[in-house]
Amino acid sequence: MGRRSLAVLALLTVGAPALAAGEYDRALRVDVAVLQGDARLLADPATPAIRRTGLQARIASILGTLDMTVRERNNHSPSAQIPLPAVAALRADFRQGRPERLLRSATSLATTLPLDTTYFIPLTQTPLRAKTGEDLYRTLCIGCHQYSDPHAANPAPNLFDMARSTPSTEFVARMLGGVHGVPRTTLKNPFSDEEIASLMVYFTAGHP
Question: What pLDDT digit, counting tens, does each position of 34-82 carry?
Fold first, then answer.
């Protein structure tokens, strides 16, 4: 195993290092964008029952830590506070089994806290990025993402399909956020922004 793979494995095992002050706000915006995406899928009548079960577990996981994420962000951005009641409203909608209302609340919060995607959208396609993205995918991603189990509650998605079908801002958020499963499987993102942009170039090119 190469040094790059070992470094990523170590990061996934022990967790990401403490965030710099400027990254707390981004971490919150990523969580909100992912939450909005999961709420959209949960509210979609076409989503299979087994996926609904997985989505509910993922949403519960995000909501379980969102208070802490908001507090950390507020502590580092005292001049622009995010009210905790907004999180309480999301949790109440989820607990009461109101997916459409949860989606509206999540969309409202995402509108208040839009994710800055200017580094990724519009995506600049270059041969170097395409090659880097392919190398990263084949070295670090393919083992989990090449085949998606349609019967799993939280399957590792086919990233090429996701690039085609997911709204662009949400796709960026999911790439930035890392693996959002349940607490046992949730892992921080080990990639730099440039590496994520390279992966996105490779995924949006549509290569299998």
Answer: 999 999 999 999 999 999 999 999 999 999 989 899 998 888 887 788 8
Please state the rounded mean pLDDT for residues 129-137.
95
DSSP 150: T
Q: How far apart are CA 193 and CA 187, in angstroms?
A: 17
Least confident of 3-7, 9-13, 120-124: 9-13
Q: What is the pLDDT of residue 208?
A: 56
Compute the chain's Rg from CA coordinates: 17
- Residue whose entry in the numeric block shows the structure tokens 């507020």: 74
Any residues with CB less than 8 A from the CB of 148 and at least 6 apart, and which?
Answer: 155, 156, 157, 158, 161
Name the DSSP letter for residue 79.
Answer: T
Nearest to 30 by CA among 1, 68, 2, 69: 69
One-letter amino acid at 84 equals L
Cis before 150 (ω within 30): no
Q: What residues contact residue 109 under an 8 Å CB cut-off, 6+ apart?
A: 32, 35, 36, 86, 90
| Residue 93 and residue 102 in contact, taking contact as beta carbons nearer than 8 Å | yes
Instruction: Look at the block and give the residue holding tokens 């709420």.
Output: 39
**Bridge partners of 187?**
179
Mean pLDDT over the full length of the chain: 85
The residues that bridge with 179 in the sheet, in sequence order, are 187
